[in-house]
């Protein structure tokens, strides 16, 4: 729960976007959707379809890097970050479940840090198209890099702990209800496999111990094709982190190497 370091860059940051920025998380939010689906009874290796595209009420959704996996287990869909599979997986969840499970990971709960910070926002989707987008972190879902790191920390420890920036002698960090320990363990395995054989292999050789994580490619704007932000969130030992690159396109290619460099320097 302790916020150990915050960085904005390159150069001198005018605003602390690492804590106050509001950005779509993209596939980072699949951590929440996957946990929610498993909590609803969908098994980690139960089959889900991952086609190239999927049409929902006239809106065509596609996968960030053109994946076509066919029918795969939830685990594989997570590790290779298939958007269309997670849209199909969203059928397991009610529209109201996204906010509820998001809150279990600390999204939208509000922080008391003594300085401005955005804890995220997961509105209840208003229809099938928005529900499909929400399932993989688009639509109206927003996070800051800080709240994405809190999300990763919750996955790592199995329980949300409110972030704490200034530690008073007798202060305890408020904690939420624990996640289901079995499902949290499955989620941790998923995130480890993202690094060992999925979209996050850029950090597979990082010093300091095994890294677990999740890449994110979050589209924004009206360009065709749309521009995208790059994310990589994860944990190593008891340290959780989030790397966000505005307009960085693919999380695995842009954000994950920055996380690897950070962890290597930390270990050095």
Question: What's this, in brief?
Answer:
With 268 residues, the protein is of the alpha+beta class. The chain is 34% helix and 18% strand. It contains nine helices and nine strands.
Count of DSSP strands: 9
Radius of gyration: 17 Å
Give the strand order, joined by hyphens, for the main sheet: 7-8-9
Low-pLDDT runs of 5+ residues are: none
> How would you classify the quaternary structure?
single chain
Fold and architecture overview:
- The chain is α+β, with helices and mostly antiparallel strands.
- It has helices spanning about 15-20, 30-40, 75-80, 85-90, 95-105, 130-135, 145-155, 180-195, 250-265, and strands at about 45-50, 55, 60, 70-75, 160, 175-180, 210-220, 225-235, 240-245.
- The longest helix is centred in the C-terminal third of the chain and has 17 residues, at about 180-195.
- It is globular, with a radius of gyration of 17 Å.
- The two termini are about 25 Å apart.
- The mean pLDDT is about 95.
Feature tags:
single chain, 268 residues, alpha+beta, three-stranded antiparallel sheet, two-stranded antiparallel sheet, 9 helices, globular
Q: In terms of topology, how is this protein built?
A:
Blueprint: H1 17-20, H2 30-39, E1 47-50, E2 53-56, E3 59-62, E4 70-73, H3 74-79, H4 83-89, H5 97-104, H6 128-135, H7 145-157, E5 159-161, E6 175-178, H8 181-197, E7 212-220, E8 227-236, E9 239-245, H9 251-267
Antiparallel strand pairs: 1-4, 2-3, 5-6, 7-8, 8-9
């Amino acid at each position: 729960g302790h916020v150990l370091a915050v960085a904005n860059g390159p150069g001198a940051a005018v605003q602390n976007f690492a804590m106050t920025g509001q950005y779509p998380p993209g596939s980072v939010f699949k951590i929440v959707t996957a946990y929610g689906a498993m909590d609803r009874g969908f098994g980690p290796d139960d089959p889900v379809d991952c086609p190239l595209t999927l049409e929902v009420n006239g809106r065509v959704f596609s996968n960030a890097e053109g994946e076509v996996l066919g029918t795969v287990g939830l685990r594989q869909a997570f590790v290779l970050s298939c958007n269309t599979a997670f849209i199909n997986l969203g059928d397991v969840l009610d529209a109201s479940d996204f906010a509820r499970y998001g809150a279990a990971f600390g999204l939208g709960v509000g922080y008391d840090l003594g300085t401005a910070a955005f804890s995220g926002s997961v509105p209840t989707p208003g229809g099938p198209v928005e529900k499909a987008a929400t399932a993989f972190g688009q639509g109206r879902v927003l996070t800051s890099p800080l709240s994405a790191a809190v999300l990763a920390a919750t996955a790592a420890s199995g329980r949300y702990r409110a972030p704490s920036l200034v530690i008073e002698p007798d202060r305890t960090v408020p904690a939420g209800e624990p996640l289901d320990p079995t499902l949290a363990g499955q989620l941790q395995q998923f995130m480890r496999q993202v690094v060992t054989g999925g979209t996050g292999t850029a950090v597979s050789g990082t010093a300091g111990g095994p890294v677990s994580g999740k890449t994110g490619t979050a589209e924004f704007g009206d360009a065709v094709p749309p521009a995208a932000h790059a994310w990589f969130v994860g944990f190593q030992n008891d340290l959780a982190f989030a790397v966000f690159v505005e307009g960085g396109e693919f999380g695995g290619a842009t954000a994950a190497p920055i996380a690897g460099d950070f962890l290597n320097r930390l270990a050095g």
